[in-house]
Fold this protein.
Amino acid sequence: MPSPLRYDMTLPNGEPLRWDMGPEFTWDGDVPSHLQPNTTMQ
């Protein structure tokens, strides 16, 4: 399940969210799938 973006968040890779991060980061968007941590259900 994707995580919604918040203005004060730190991304899963440890980088803080910035205004100039690129087109995949949009208002009311989610954290892109390539930054989501890979966890398996047990």
